[in-house]
Amino acid sequence: MISLTDSQKIGMGLTGFGVFFLFFGMILFFDKALLAIGNILFVSGLSFVIGLERTFRFFFQRHKVKATSFFLGGVLVVLIGWPIVGVVLEIYGFFLLFRGFFPVAVGFMRRVPVLGSLLSLPGISALVDKIGESNNMV
Question: pTM, whole model, 2 decimals?
Answer without folding.
Answer: 0.80
